[in-house]
Amino acid sequence: MPDANIVFQSMNGSGKTGAFCIPAIMHVDLTQSALQVLIIGGATRELNRQTKQILEVLVKDLGITVCFGEKSEKFDTSHIMVTTLGYIKQ
After folding, report:
1. Which end of the chain is more exposed for a tag (fewer CB within 10 A), N or C?
2. Smallest Cα–Cα separation from 16: which of 43, 36, 42?
3. Residue ranges of domains in the chain
4. What distance in Å separates the CA atoms of residue 81 and residue 36, rounded to the nearest whole number?
5. CA distance 61 to 58
6. Please, which pLDDT band fits residue 84 given cuts at 50, 70 and 90?
7. pTM of the predicted model, to two decimals?
8. How many CB atoms lie under 10 A from the CB of residue 57?
9. How many other β-carbons are positioned within 10 Å of the β-carbon of residue 37?
């Protein structure tokens, strides 16, 4: 399937986060120490932090690094970044 933008909507606890995090993880190339996946989450930091926490559980022991996009965090060698649209606009 070619790269595409997809929108999900469903009830809480139905697996939406896993539905986009697992394919994102599968596209990470561990031979490259660079940002490869950008997840632009909801409007609130709390929702994005929850997404980052779920990602960290899913990538545990895989060698994939996850960061939260904000001014104070370095992402030079992170594979996946979870952030808000506001951070990208900066």
Report:
1. N
2. 42
3. 29-89
4. 8
5. 9
6. confident
7. 0.77
8. 8
9. 20
Closest to 44 (Cα-Cα) out of 88, 89, 84: 84
Closest CA to 39 of 12, 8, 10: 8
For residue 26, name the pLDDT band (cuts at 50, 70, 90).
very high
The residue behind tokens 């469903």 is 10
Summarised one tens digit per residue, pLDDT across range 62-73 is 999 998 887 666
Nearest-CA neighbor of 25 among 49, 50, 61?
61
Q: Give long-range contacts, CB 8 A cutoff, 24+ apart: 18-27.
A: 18/54, 18/58, 21/51, 21/54, 21/55, 21/58, 22/58, 24/55, 24/80, 25/55, 25/58, 25/59, 25/62, 25/64, 25/80
Q: Which residues pair with 38 in a beta bridge?
A: 81
Q: What is the CA radius of gyration of the chain?
A: 13
The answer to whether 84 and 40 have CB atoms below 8 angstroms apart is: yes
